[in-house]
What we know:
Layout: E1 6-10, H1 14-26, E2 29-33, H2 37-46, E3 63-65, H3 68-72, E4 77-80, H4 84-94, E5 104-106, H5 119-126, E6 135-139, H6 144-148, E7 153-159, H7 162-172, E8 177-182, H8 185-207, H9 211-232, H10 243-254, H11 259-268, H12 273-278, H13 285-299, H14 305-315, H15 320-328
Parallel strand pairs: 1-2, 1-4, 2-3, 4-5, 5-6, 7-8
Antiparallel strand pairs: 6-7
Helix pairs in contact: 4-5, 8-9, 8-10, 8-11, 8-13, 9-10, 13-14, 14-15
Amino acid sequence: MQIVNRIGVIGAGAWGTALAKHIAEKGLHVRLWAYERDVVDSINQTHENRVFLPGVTLPLSLSATNSLVEAVSDCDGLLFVVPSHVARLVLQQLAPLLPSSMPLISATKGVEEETFKLMTQVMEEVLPVPLHSRLMVLSGPSFAAEVSQGQPTALCLAGREASLVSAFQTALMTPALRIYADSDMTGVQLGGALKNVMALAAGVVDGLGLGHNARAALITRGLAEMVRLGMAMGADARTFYGLSGMGDLVLTCTGSLSRNHTVGVRLGKGEKLETILGGMQAVAEGVRTAKAASGLAHRHHVEMPIVREINAVLFEGKSCRKAVTDLMERDAKPEKGNA
């Protein structure tokens, strides 16, 4: 089994910083790459990421850098945690720096907006072929703030090589962070990405004050849409009833720390999307993923009415109340059908 002692974390947003903190506190050597110079300076000088994870003290052993060369040097593996809309650009810069045996774990919960590709599909386009079998994905119900506080959390790590997954499962797991192994990379990635779109819709329901019944129905039918698309793309339906599917969906649709749910609530209360996003420091991945989810549904001939309506609200000026009405007044369907 591969020995894992040194890990590079590419991306110093809240999630990347929380993961880096967790790994460093376990005693592994960690180097955290940030694009923003002020983030690097904040971490190295004050041991706090004041931009993306304020109020959390980071271990003295955790160092940050602006240099990708430094970040990947002598590493046993990389955690890739950058927003989906800049993933390809960062991967293009990483590609010539990586040895052919470097394991690479994507912890980015999104889909490339222009191509509708999952993060590992983007990686396979950009990175050398010998690295393709070394790719893995990490996802599950996990607010960065709670992970950084050492609150109990469970995640799923999926990859093609069982021995490699096992090595990093062992390296990342602590009494506060439990890691489950899987091989369904497509399903794990889709669950982590699509739940953000459903969280926007759940937020709209809450912003409109439609009650717990409506939110429960939204979550349940949202899961049904996720399963339909996942199966059309070759994923295992059972994955969506696990941590990266149902687990993350429930958390993001109900938790007060969810950025996507918060955006939906504000939309439901009548605020404009441009105003909401203009005041946010961190990325709400669901806004970008909504377009990609709609594109994937069209490509694979899958009916996803919630995805369709949230896109209409986000990008076509449709009112939130009209979107809910149109969902409720659709033709009668069997619960286990295709729509």
